[in-house]
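Query structure, 359 C-alpha cells:
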C-alpha cells in the first residue's frame, strides 16, 4: 500500500457548498482534496440557481441578507473573472401575489427602509408586465437573477483537477477512519474532513443526528416559441428564462417519497401549474425533466461545525432551497473559523442542537 497522500482538509462533496469551501481554503493556502461521485445525487446540478433575497410567502428579509448578497456578488464575480465566463445572469423578478392577503406582507416591506433597494413597482391584476395570469397583482423585485450552476460546478471541478485536488469516486462512509491524529480515507489522509454531502447527510453515521428536512423537487426545461420573458416569474411556481431562450419551470415539493427519480406525477403537476400561470392555450415543448433533493433543515438555518465527539469531522450543509444566495457567505465563514478561529454565525452553528435532544 503506498503512503497516503496528506492534506490539510478533505472535503466530501463537490456541490456548490464543497466547491465554495474548497475555493476559500485553497485561496488561503491550504492543501485541500475534494472527493465527489460525479455529482450522482447533486442538488446543485438540478437547481435553477435562483437568487431571491425575499424568501417565501411572507417575503421575509433575513437579518444576514446583506452579508449573503455581498459574499455572493464577491465570490461569483471572482469566479467569473478567473474563468472568463458569465455565471450570474441578473434579471428582475415578478412576484405574483397568491392571495389578496399576501399584499399585506408587501405593504409591511414598504415601510422597511432597508428593503427599498429590493422593491420595484407594484402592479394591479390587469397590468402585469408579462402575459401571465396575475389575478391578485404583484410587484417587481430587484437584486434577483440566476447562477449557471452546472457551468460553475464544471469549471471548479476542472480547476481542482488542475491542482491535483479532485478525486472522483463514491465513498462508503464505513471507509472513513477518524482518530486523534486526523482522518484517513482510502489513500488520503488529512487533519480534518468536512462533509458537504448534501441530502446524503441523512445516511451519514456521524451527523445524521442533526435535524435535516429533505425535500424532493422536480423541474422542467422547456420551450414556448414566440415568448421571451424579460423577468423571472415567481408565484405558486417559478419560471426562469435561460440565456439559450429556453425556460426552466419548477419546482415540486415532496417530503414523503425522497429519491432522485423523475415521475409522471411531477411532470403533470408542473404542466398544470404552467397552464394556470399562462392562463391560455399555449404550445409547450418539454426538453428535459430533472429531480433532486434539497438539503433543508427543520429550523431553516444551515448546519456548520465540528462533531462533538470526533474533532477531525466537520459539516457544511443544510442550505435548503437557498444555496445559491447563502452558500458563498457561510462557506467563507466556515473557512475563517477553520483557519483563523473566528466564531461561526450562531444561527448556523450546529452547537445549537444538543445531540441528546435531537436523537
Ligand atoms: C428542483 C430543485 C430546485 C432548486 N432550485 C434552487 C434555486 O433556484 N436556488 C437555490 O438557491 N437553490 C435551489 N435548490 C437548492 C440547491 O440545490 C441547494 O441549496 C444547494 O445546491 C445544495 O448544495 P450542496 O453542495 O450542499 O449539496 P449537493 O449539491 O447535493 O452536493 C453534494 C455532493 O456530494 C456528493 N456526495 C454525497 N455523498 C457522497 C459520497 N458518499 N461519495 C461521493 N460523493 C458524495 C453528491 O453526489 C453531490 O455531488 C433547488 C433544489 C432542487 C432539488
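Result returned for the query:
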Amino acid at each position: 500500500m503506498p503512503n497516503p497522500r496528506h492534506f490539510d482538509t478533505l472535503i466530501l462533496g463537490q456541490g456548490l457548498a464543497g466547491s465554495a469551501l474548497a475555493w476559500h481554503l485553497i485561496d488561503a493556502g491550504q492543501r485541500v482534496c475534494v472527493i465527489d461521485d460525479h455529482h450522482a445525487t447533486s442538488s446543485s446540478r438540478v437547481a435553477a440557481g435562483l437568487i431571491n433575497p425575499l424568501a417565501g410567502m411572507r417575503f421575509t428579509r433575513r437579518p444576514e441578507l446583506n452579508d449573503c448578497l455581498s459574499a455572493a456578488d464577491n465570490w461569483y464575480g471572482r469566479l467569473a473573472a478567473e474563468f472568463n465566463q458569465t455565471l450570474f445572469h441578473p434579471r428582475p423578478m415578478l412576484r405574483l401575489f397568491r392571495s389578496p392577503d399576501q399584499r399585506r406582507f408587501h405593504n409591511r416591506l414598504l415601510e422597511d427602509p432597508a428593503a427599498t433597494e429590493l422593491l420595484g413597482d407594484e402592479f394591479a391584476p390587469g397590468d402585469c408586465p408579462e402575459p401571465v395570469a396575475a389575478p391578485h397583482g404583484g410587484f417587481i423585485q430587484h437584486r434577483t437573477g440566476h447562477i449557471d450552476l452546472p457551468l460553475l460546478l464544471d469549471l471548479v471541478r476542472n480547476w481542482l483537477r488542475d491542482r491535483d485536488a479532485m478525486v472522483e469516486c463514491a465513498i462508503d462512509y464505513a471507509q472513513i477512519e477518524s482518530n486523534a491524529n486526523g482522518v484517513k480515507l482510502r489513500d488520503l489522509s488529512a487533519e480534518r474532513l468536512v462533509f458537504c454531502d448534501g441530502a446524503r447527510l441523512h445516511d451519514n453515521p456521524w451527523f445524521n443526528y442533526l435535524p435535516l428536512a429533505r425535500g424532493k423537487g422536480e423541474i422542467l426545461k422547456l420551450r414556448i416559441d414566440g415568448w421571451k420573458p424579460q423577468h423571472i416569474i415567481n408565484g405558486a411556481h417559478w419560471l426562469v428564462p435561460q440565456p439559450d431562450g429556453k425556460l426552466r419551470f419548477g419546482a415540486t415539493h415532496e417530503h414523503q417519497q425522497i429519491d432522485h427519480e423523475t415521475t409522471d406525477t411531477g411532470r403533470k403537476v408542473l404542466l398544470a401549474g404552467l397552464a394556470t400561470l399562462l392562463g391560455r392555450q399555449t404550445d409547450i415543448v418539454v426538453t428535459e425533466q430533472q429531480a433532486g433533493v434539497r438539503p433543508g433543515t427543520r429550523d431553516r438555518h444551515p448546519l456548520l461545525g465540528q462533531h462533538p465527539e470526533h474533532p477531525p469531522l466537520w459539516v457544511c450543509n443544510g442550505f435548503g432551497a437557498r444555496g445559491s444566495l447563502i452558500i458563498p457567505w457561510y462557506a467563507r465563514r466556515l473557512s475563517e473559523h477553520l483557519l483563523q478561529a473566528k466564531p461561526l454565525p450562531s444561527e448556523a452553528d450546529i452547537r445549537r442542537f444538543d445531540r441528546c435532544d435531537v436523537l
